[in-house]
Write a structure and sequence with these properties.
Helices cover 25% and strands 27% of the residues. The protein contains nine helices and 20 strands.
Length: 338
């Protein structure tokens, strides 16, 4: 398995941004992972591990190595009367794993349906939606240490999960290539429908006693309405994280903006929907050249066809500045900028 040179990346990132990689190496089995990396990668150039390309913005050509993870396989590692431990290879499409669980009645991943990307990226980002995060079902992962050339197992506490965050986005960024992930799922699941919009969709679907498939179908319907299909309009889903502010700051903002929504967290802080802040700054449906903000979901930045990564980044920076000037709240990007 030899690397390719000067490889176009437009089809490998959901923004559909034109960029090229100096070298690209496809990995389709864990068995040849170490050999390929040791045989071709000398460490003299940057290295980027790419899964589904659904959470990345290329702002130019990548003058280094890209490792494209395409390993496949989902299976049961072990089980007891209440739980099942499911192991998935890093190159599996995330939604295929969700469907695997749904088809067998295993609960825990149904709220995370229709999140683009691959399994190996899910712990890096600690993906989440509608009251559930990946870490809630995470058991462990295996990853290859590119520096020390050996495989290591990470348990939940090793990963230091946070809101759309993990150790792999911080001090271990670029050092480990995740090869597989194990999830602990329920054989007798209890559904999570605490988000109002999910409950509303279930009522619209005329479901009064929802199971995991009902919840998945409701969330899939919500996401299809709110989020554009990357095949039709280039995007990477939510461009920004929902900011968390103190209860005191929220109380002051509430006096000035009585309709500002907020979700209180256990420690007393408040999570603010970034989409609301962006909308109030007038960016919903905004377009500058080929870069724009989605007309229905202001949290999503889009490529109308020929936007460069720098165009999209500049628009994102304009939004961040406007939100800061009006509300005094800093927006952090959820998308990884390269």
């Amino acid at each position: 398995m030899k690397p390719r040179e000067n490889v176009p990346l437009k089809e490998l990132n959901t923004f559909g941004v034109d960029a090229r990689a100096r070298y690209l190496l496809d990995i389709d089995t864990c068995e040849n992972l170490a050999g390929c990396l040791e045989g071709y990668y000398s460490g003299n150039l940057p290295l980027l591990i790419l899964g589904g390309g659904s959470n990345i913005l290329f702002t130019g050509d990548y003058h280094g190595w890209i490792v494209l993870v395409n390993t496949k396989g989902i299976g049961i590692l072990k089980e007891d009367s209440s739980h099942v431990w499911v192991r998935a290879e890093a190159g599996e499409v995330w939604d295929d794993l969700v469907e695997y669980a749904l088809a067998r009645g295993y609960g825990g991943l149904e709220n995370l349906i229709c999140i683009p990307g691959k399994v190996g990226a899910s712990p890096i980002q600690n993906i989440g939606a509608y009251g559930v995060e990946m870490k809630d079902r995470f058991h462990s992962l295996q990853a290859y240490d590119i520096h020390e050339k050996k495989t290591r197992t990470f348990l939940k506490e090793d990963c230091r999960f946070g809101y759309r965050d993990s150790i792999f986005k911080r001090e271990l960024q670029g050092r480990f290539l995740i090869t597989s992930v194990v999830f602990k799922l329920d054989k007798h699941p209890r559904v999570h429908t605490s988000y109002g919009i999910v409950a509303e969709q279930l009522r619209e679907n005329k479901v009064s006693d929802p199971g995991i498939r009902d919840v998945a179908e409701a969330i899939a319907a919500i996401r299809s309405r709110k989020l554009p299909d990357p095949d039709d309009l280039g995007n990477a889903g939510s461009f920004f994280k929902n900011p968390v502010i103190s209860g005191g700051v929220y109380a002051r903002l509430k006096l000035q903006y009585p309709d500002i929504p907020g979700y209180r967290l256990p420690a007393g802080d408040v999570k603010i929907p970034a989409a609301w802040l962006i909308d109030r700054c007038g960016f919903k449906g905004f377009r500058k050249g080929e870069a724009g903000v989605h007309e229905f979901q202001p949290l999503v930045l889009v490529n109308h066809g020929k936007a460069t990564g720098r165009d999209i980044l500049a628009l994102g920076d304009s939004i961040r500045s406007a939100v800061w000037e009006r509300f005094g709240i800093r927006l952090d990007r959820e998308v990884w900028v390269v």
